[in-house]
Amino acid sequence: MTTTDFSTGILVDNSPAEVFNAINNVRGWWSEEIEGNTNKLNEEWSYHYQDVHRCKMKIVEFVPNRKIVWRVMDNFFSFTHDKSEWIGNKIIFEITEEQGKTQLQFTQEGLIPGYECYDICQGAWTTYIQKSLYSLVTTGKGQPNGKDKAQTEDESNLTSFTTTFFVSQTPEEVFQAINNVSAWWQGEIKGKSKKVNDEFEYQMLDVHYSKQKVVEMILNEKVVWLVTDSNLSSFTNKQEWSGTKIIFEIKEINGKTQLRFSHMGLVPKFQCYGDCSGAWEMLVNESLFSLITTGKGKKVF
User: Fold this and answer.
1) CB within 8 A of 149, min separation 6: which ones?
2) In this predicted model, what pLDDT tens digit does every residue of 220-254 receive, in sequence order?
3) Are 67 and 16 in contact (CB under 8 A)?
4) How is domain 160-294 classified at the CATH fold level?
5) Residues 41, 58: Cα–Cα separation, whole Å
6) Contact (CB, 8 A) for 227 and 243
7) What DSSP string runs through 186-226?
């Protein structure tokens, strides 16, 4: 276990036995989509959320009222390049008594900031532990996923298109490149994109028109555009992009700068998903990456 492994916890008035029993009722706080026995040493069980996340767990340590450890035997994320993230990780629940209260410490050993899934996974775990499991312990009723239904905003967003890369350049250099939209997003750009409330239009021949408004900008950390209008001429619903958000999140990790790009609302059920996600892959991972690392964007189509 390292200091960078994700960890969170809760403190309750309930007894260690009540906390222990609630943890083992995985269907009661994580998801109704659990198959297998979750409350006995060496048992294996599986979880899935649509085609987005599947995992298989084995209970490798089981100390009544004190500790539970699951080992991730298999895992699949549809939204990461490395489909093996989580495999071999340990998910640890440690229960202690402190001044008449019960402390639960949750740790996923191996879930570290360098993981592509880190931001979404830590956000989802925080909600599951601090809200759903806490509620199950203290009220007897948790807030688990229904069948094929996400319980957290982070998990709901998993189906939206996202991609991530790392560079040696500083967060400031990445931030500046993102805002130099015409240098990496190929097509005709009109308008401004440097500060909150700026608006700009994008046009690619007669195929794609969209209008973006800068709705959030945190220096060297985050940029968010709201798509206020769109016209995708090749598709039945020409305004599929309207109301979606395009998000750039910048974070320094182990001496490198991570850029996480998400198009929230661009989901597989969209008619344009295949074409649009493919275009974003090229524009972000090739053109924007090139602008950041060489000073010049790359023509990708």
Assistant:
1) none
2) 999 999 999 999 988 888 899 999 999 999 988 76
3) no
4) Alpha-D-Glucose-1,6-Bisphosphate; Chain A, domain 4 (3.30.530)
5) 8
6) yes
7) -SEEEE--SSTT-EEEEEETTTEEEEEEEEEEETTTEEEEE
DSSP summary character for residue 125: H
pTM above the 0.85 mark? Answer: no
Alpha carbons within 13 angstroms on the beta-carbon side of residue 153 total 4
Locate 220 and state its tokens: 């060297």
Residue 153 clears pLDDT 70, i.e. is over it: no
| Residue appearing with tokens 């198959």 | 35
> Would the CATH topology of 6-156 be identical to that of 160-294?
yes
Token pair of 125 as six digits: 């775990």
Query: What is the C-alpha separation between 4 and 87, in angstroms, rounded?
Result: 17
- What the block records as the tokens of 62 is 């089981």
- Per-residue pLDDT tens digits for 44-94: 999 987 777 899 999 999 999 999 999 999 999 877 778 789 999 999 999
State the DSSP H helix or E strand holding residue 8, giving kind and residue range, or none if neither.
strand 6-12
Encode 275-292 in three state secondary structure. Answer: HHHHHHHHHHHHHHHHHH
3-state DSSP assignment of residue 73: strand
- E-assigned strand segments in 64-160: 67-77, 90-98, 101-109
Q: Does domain 6-156 have CATH number 2.60.40.10?
A: no
Map out the domains of the chain as residue ranges.
Answer: 6-156, 160-294
**Residue 126: how many CA atoms within 13 Å on its side-chain side?**
9
